[in-house]
Amino acid sequence: MDTRLGSLDLSKPTSNDVVSCVKANSTSSIQPSIPSCTISSTDATLGRHLARRLVQVGVTDVFSVPGDFNLTLLDHLVDEPGLNLIGCCNELNAGYAADGYARSRGVGACVVTFTVGGLSVLNAIAGAYSENLPLICIVGGPNSNDYGSNRILHHTIGLPDFSQELRCFQTVTCFQAVVNNLEDAHELIDTAISTALKESKPVYISIGCNLPAIPHPTFSRDPVPFSLAPKLSNQIGLEAAVEAAAEFLNKAVKPVLVGGPKLRVAKASDAFVELADASGYALAVMPSAKGMVPEHHPHFIGTYWGAVSTAFCAEIVESADAYLFAGPIFNDYSSVGYSLLLKKEKAIIVQPDRVVIANGPAFGCVLMNDFLKALAKRLKHNNVAYENYHRIFVPDGKPLKCVPKEPLRVNVMFQHIQKMLSSETAVIAETGDSWFNCQKLKLPEGCGYEFQMQYGSIGWSVGATLGYAQAVPEKRVIACIGDGSFQVTAQDVSTMLRCGQKTIIFLINNGGYTIEVEIHDGPYNVIKNWNYTGLIDAIHNGEGKCWTTKVFCEEELVEAIATATGPKKDSFCFIEVIVHKDDTSKELLEWGSRVSAANSRPPNPQ
Q: What are the two backbone dihedrals, phi and then psi, of residue 38, each rounded to the nearest 5 degrees?
């Protein structure tokens, strides 16, 4: 997964007004030089400092929704060379876009207005928190004179206490800054942004609406680039952890490695692959780590997801006599309703700063990256588990061949999506059956992949696709979205068109919330059918490059893909795929039954 952090480019983009999506040039690291530019007193403003700081840490696009409390601040973001202000249709999608952007760039940002905007974006910020994404949420707050005045303001719940929004953000951000005077504004802003980068979590910055344009001496120079002190392992603890882990694993007959989603926050994907190379162990990933480990690795055996794992993967992992999990999250979804057949006494659990070996010793202040690299030098080569996998492996069967004009089946559709993937594409999988179908895609080297498993908010993918595509314009994003999810956040297809993005959306129209049907069915899982291609055509309205089509059979799908990747390769393409309401992956059927059983457990006896 390609994550870039840091950009500072003083060149003026072609346009930097609110509708511009022109990309500013970016570099791969925070600039080390100390800026020598002294700013004129009239330009030494809070708004300019914040804008410069965002560009400096790698944010060249900010997703926003204007409101009267943030308008002056938005003026300063618009005026900043190298920064594009992208107006979204609603705050929730602005937050989701910043989430998608952070997944590629390493940091994202959104700007909304006080309370009505803040509480609207809150759900997206919670999702970013759950996925360990550094996201800077900026809110235009009340006039600084109104704090403590006992006045009632609009955009509030009608009480003179303005802290409701702050209290809501405190549980889903790692730092909160309320800037209502200029004396400590510089410190609060820089502390917030640096904390987001260090903790890899969202932060909240509220800025009084009357402050962005006021000069202050603390902003009289360009911001000095951050020099974030690296976290360090306790060397004694690291050596002890490596010694214990090596002894544990070297005694095993058929050990395996399993990568988890916290490889991202630990920045340890390369170290994990280095360990796999050195050890020869069979290599798998948890579902939420797909895309973080190269699937072309010679010892890669697929996704470990309990009963819905890639074929033959679970058998190898669960029969191993030792397994090292790097950065796992074991929740009810990833454990398929708590049904994994794993034993604690066989496991080494490596978290970003902690190692636990079986039922025995635990080692704190040990960084995952350091631990994996050091362990790679201590392990004996052992490829027994992979050889066992190789012996039992049978290649995937192909879907039954469609007869001419037969109604399209989902497994046939994904067979054709597989052929579209390359190093120049990225896949966004929406919450729902796309989780399971996209897990089965084999990612070529360099192909991006993202989905939101921990939080699992339906509708996430529309905004995330917008943000991800904006962050990596060199890739063509392929988004697989169910009709129910799309109805939640469809509006920001409009923003994709404004930005000239060339995304391909496969809208899977099966008439409802299929993932929820398989957990617990009811009439509430059936939705009103839309004319989705008609909706996109209306949003397009003749502005920008857009192509839509509706497909009912394999022949039409093949033709649509050929058009989207050929004559319309530089256009936004929307392919509505009509499938049967009960056409689901076998994995969803199994997973849904087990999650349902976990959800319906009776209360423990009192």
A: -95, 130
